[in-house]
Amino acid sequence: MSVGERIKTRRKQLKMSVDKLGEMVGKNRATIYRYESDEIENMPYDVLEPLAKALNVSPAYLMGWEENKVEHFLTTYKYLPVTVAAGLPMDIASISEKEVETISVPDSLMGKWAGSNEIFLMRTNGDSMNRIIPNNSLIAVKEIELCSLKDNDIVVFSNENEYSVKRFFNDKENERFIFRPDSYDTRFVDYIVKYSESQNLKLHGKVVVYIVELD
């Protein structure tokens, strides 16, 4: 694989546009296309280094001097430094943009969402989803419109600043939303919000990846 092919392959894996890569390294899209088509030979290090940094790989990998497997690469994501309740909804302090942190996760754990800028990560707290998501798991959440949700999707939601993660069901016949636990503990019950009482209900996103930490 040539240098240009490595640049293009890695950019696509990160779901990064040519314009975005150009912006990150201070080049226009035409120049990035020239890099990817190998029109520029003997690429100088002062070009190669920022390209490698933007793509979360080493310059040696782009040059073909080392064959690091892509699954070992890390990508940085927005991280909300609070836990979301996998139990009954709980109050958490509102988070300002300044308080949002970052976290680096191996691409192999993120699957098709590796490199996506559409997601944020946070941790769970509680056992109401422990059939699927154990306590203290890391979850990746993608913002999504209500109309795009399907029954049984796992969502992060809040109701009057109470945040939780549950399975989502839209009970249209009875005009209510059901947020259902998925737990080995049968004491957990559905959290129900009627359409008429959903003014403060907010769906923050769909859980697309969960990462379980084993002891």
Structure description:
This protein is of the alpha+beta class. 21% of the residues lie in helices and 32% in strands. The protein is built from six helices and ten strands, in the order αααααβββαβββββββ. Strands 1, 2, 3, 4, 5, 6, 7, 8, 9 and 10 form a ten-stranded mixed sheet that branches. A hairpin with a 4-residue loop joins β7 and β8. α2 packs across α3. The longest helix is centred in the first third of the chain and has 11 residues. It is elongated, with a radius of gyration of 21 Å. The protein starts with a helix and ends with a strand. About 4% of the residues have low confidence.
Task: Provide a compact summary of the structure.
The protein has 215 residues and is an alpha+beta fold. Strands 1, 2, 3, 4, 5, 6, 7, 8, 9 and 10 form a ten-stranded mixed beta sheet that branches.
Shape: elongated
Largest sheet: 10 strands, mixed
SS class: alpha+beta
Helix content: 10-25%
Structure summary, number of beta strands = 10
Low-confidence stretches: 88-96
**What's the N-to-C terminus distance?**
40 Å
